[in-house]
Design brief:
Strands 1, 2, 3, 4, 5, 6, 7, 8 and 9 form a nine-stranded mixed beta sheet that branches. Helices cover 35% and strands 17% of the residues. α2 packs across α3. The chain has eleven helices and nine strands. The longest helix has 22 residues, at 164-185. The chain has a single domain (9-301), classed as Alpha/Beta hydrolase fold, catalytic domain (Rossmann fold, 3-Layer(aba) Sandwich). A hairpin with a 3-residue loop joins β1 and β2 (18-25). It is α/β, with parallel strands linked by helices.
Length: 303
């Protein structure tokens, strides 16, 4: 698929915690599709997908997550939380603010987590779900349990962020550190180095470091969450199933965690579900494999 430069409008909408910046494509009355990026990425991951969906008549919205790009907190009193409940609440608030009763969602990494949570807890708001790496809801209670050494070493950046040295390192070297993660997580992606510069400015947000650090501390129980979001975290502790039609896309070369041969996530899905492992694809699935991501979305939209 050739690179498409998105003819997108950058708009803002205010929610309970954020002024969310988002790119929009297609007719305003088209069926809504929301595309969600992860860490450390931004809406550029969907540059080859959003315009195609728009050409087919869909209303495509690609928000910048909290802590990224021009999205801003509405005031200094809002906690700079990066916990999974915050990401999900942001997505739900975003849909409410734009009067979107139901949408098809696609996401990976942080964005995939937000999409999975909304699909699990508010299934009436989700027509279909494309999730990178399947069931992406954290089981925080089990996070202290050690994993196999081959898995643990890939999480070095998370342990780094648990320390003050990691805070200082991300603050001073955010672009270099994130560029390294791009290379480690997508080792087969030849175009990655040339595209990184288009995304890196999104990490210059004044809230980027605080949100990232909180995200990787909270998931291990090393930082308290936003008290106003505790009701969501309590619901997520039960590992709720996902009952909407779903497709899981997994990168075979994902440097964060290669997909296991057996699908461990299938037990979490209660409706149509299939898993597709993508050879030669790393962590940034929509940007590395736009054809497969688009095909998955269209499969759900046509159901």
């Amino acid at each position: 698929m050739a690179t498409l430069i998105p003819a997108a409008a950058l708009l803002y909408v205010r929610t309970s915690m954020l002024d969310v910046a988002y790119e929009t494509h297609g007719p305003v009355h088209g069926e809504p599709v929301i595309l969600l990026h992860g860490f450390p990425y931004d809406p550029r991951s969907y540059d080859e997908i959003a315009p195609v969906l728009a050409q087919r008549g869909y209303r495509v919205l690609v928000p910048y997550l909290r802590g990224y790009g021009p999205t801003r907190f509405i005031n200094d009193q809002v906690m700079r939380s990066g916990q999974q409940a915050a990401l999900a609440k942001d997505l739900l608030d975003f849909m409410d603010a734009l009067a979107i009763p139901c949408a098809t969602l696609a996401g990976y990494d942080w964005g995939g987590r937000a999409a999975c949570i909304v699909a699990a807890l508010w299934p009436e708001r989700v027509r279909g779900l494309v999730s990178a790496d399947g069931y992406n809801i954290q089981d925080i209670a089990k996070s202290p349990k050690p994993r196999a050494p081959a898995t643990e070493h890939r999480l070095w950046y998370q342990y780094y962020f648990h320390t003050q040295r990691g805070v200082d390192g991300l603050t001073a070297n955010r672009r270099e550190l994130c560029q390294l993660l791009w290379a480690l997580w997508s080792p087969s992606w030849a175009r990655g180095p040339s595209l990184y510069g288009h995304t890196a400015p999104s990490f210059d947000s004044p809230d980027f470091v605080a949100v990232v650090i909180h995200s990787y501390r909270h998931r291990f129980g090393y930082a308290p969450g936003d008290p106003g979001l505790e009701f969501i975290e309590q619901a997520l502790a039960l590992q709720p199933p996902i009952s909407v039609p779903s497709i899981s896309l997994c990168g075979a070369d994902d440097g964060v965690g290669p997909p296991p041969e057996e699908d461990d996530d299938v037990e979490h899905f209660r409706s149509f579900y299939r898993r597709q492992v993508l050879p030669g694809v790393g962590h940034n699935i929509p940007q590395e494999a736009p054809e497969a991501t688009l095909a998955a979305l269209l499969e759900l939209l046509h159901r």
